[in-house]
Specification:
Length: 136
């Protein structure tokens, strides 16, 4: 959206990301609430970036999206009766927490501008004239 020549519709975004437009609208609602994007209704409307990409990090985006779970794995049983499973769960939970902290820390180091620059590098490498939007 940072370089798209105009607003991008939920339908267009959903096609680029291979998902449903409803998922895009729900996701963008959290980003709009934080002021990262804005939307215009009607013909010619859609979503546009409303922030400075050099000041917004992946951690900011993560928080705007409600801080969803980062890891899809967890303990099999919350309160197991087996002492071995209790020990394993405790160690795994500590490890999961540390991994999540590391991910969030790294998210805080990555700005949207950095992602845009990487997109340009990838597009140039593919001979795409540095155009990132609509590329797959």
């Amino acid at each position: 959206m940072a370089e798209h020549p105009g607003p991008v519709t939920s339908k267009d975004l959903s096609e680029m990301m291979v998902t449903n437009p409803v998922v895009i609208r729900q996701t963008m609602a959290g980003l709009r609430k934080q002021g990262y994007v804005k939307s215009e209704k009607g013909h010619g409307g859609g979503w546009t970036l409303a922030c400075d990409p050099s000041t917004v990090t992946l951690q900011d985006i993560y928080a705007a999206l409600g801080s969803p779970s980062l890891l899809a794995i967890s303990n099999r049983t919350e309160s197991p009766g087996c002492l071995v499973e209790q020990a394993v769960n405790s160690t795994l939970q500590q490890t999961f927490n540390e991994a999540e902290e590391l991910l969030l820390s790294r998210f805080g180091e990555i700005t949207l501008a950095m992602l845009i620059a990487e997109c340009h590098a990838n597009a140039t490498a593919r001979g795409n004239n540095s155009q990132c939007y609509g590329a797959s």
